[in-house]
Amino acid sequence: MAPSLGREWQVPGPATQDGLALGPRDGPRSDSSQQLVLDMLAGLSRYASGGVAAMQLERFWHPKMNWYGPAGIGTARGLAAFRHWHQIPFLNGMPNRRGTGGKGEFLADGDYVAVTGWPNMHATISGDGWLGIAPAGQQITMRSLDFWRCERGLIRENWVLVDLLHVYRQVGVDVLARLREFNKARAPLTLQDWA
Question: pTM above the 0.70 mark?
């Protein structure tokens, strides 16, 4: 896999340390959080007609938001880092990305929203390529899960799980087989190696 553009590190839990819902569900607050995420996702679809500015990210995301991507993409803090280290390379590499047609399953509780979709996106790797994958018109599907934490009407944190091993596999790269091959050279040294 190509090096991540964003920072790779151990992804933290929520900054508010309140990810466990121990009390009854707050329906209006949960609905408000889910609507914020749905509105943001609708804004993302405006890219095709008006570019990055048409998405109006500032309406939905906190200026000091954290976007926690998987190894291979990395983490970004703030809208500028998110745009440059994930969003723009993603859009340039797969300008025709589209949902699979299903809405996915949304769950909301308080300030937290989650969506599942397996797979939830189709795309063609073209344009600038993506994650070190050369743009050769490869058709792929993407499997991902998203979790958001909202704060005072804006999205403050987003944990994104993308099955990148599956993406690479679809373009003919078995990352785990490569790792096994590379690690053969890292076998422990024996006394015969020093003789």
Answer: yes
